Amino acid sequence: MNKKQLGHFEKRLLEERARALKELGHYGESFDATLQAADGDLSSYSFHMADQGTDAMEREKAFLMASKEGRFLWHLNQALRRLYGTPEKYGKCENCGEEISYERLDALPHARLCINCKEKEENGKHR
């Protein structure tokens, strides 16, 4: 992989990282908001049990989305470590050592497996 391509993928990884951090910031703001501020009520208690259930479900959903975004950020950081630490290995499959296609890396700059090895990995998980 040449320096121009490495620069392109570095830019893509940094853009994705900035977007993920911004998204996590939005979740952080919503977690920091009190129940009172979140639903606009004057008291922090819901008037109906269904409202309490809905509030709990929304908090759980936000937590799960933030958790997913946090895992994505971890993968992006790992890819940046590979890119900066061993640029000759970036873009090569960790299983077979073959080059990961440019198109795959452009779509998923944090990819660590070629498409064939990824398919094998996913097929093994479904069994």
Give the tags.
127 residues, mainly alpha, Four Helix Bundle (Hemerythrin (Met), subunit A), 5 helices, 0% strand
Q: Tell me the distance between the termini.
A: 35 Å
In total, the number of domains comes to 1
| SS class | mainly alpha
Radius of gyration: 20 Å
Could you explain the architecture of this structure?
With 127 residues, the chain is mainly alpha-helical. The protein has one domain: Up-down Bundle (Four Helix Bundle (Hemerythrin (Met), subunit A)). It has helices spanning 3-32, 35-39, 49-85, 102-107, 115-125. It starts with a helix and ends with a helix.
Compact description:
The protein has a single domain (3-125), classed as Up-down Bundle (Four Helix Bundle (Hemerythrin (Met), subunit A)). The chain contains five helices and no strands.
Write the layout of secondary structure elements.
Layout: H1 3-32, H2 35-39, H3 49-85, H4 102-107, H5 115-125
Helix pairs in contact: 1-3
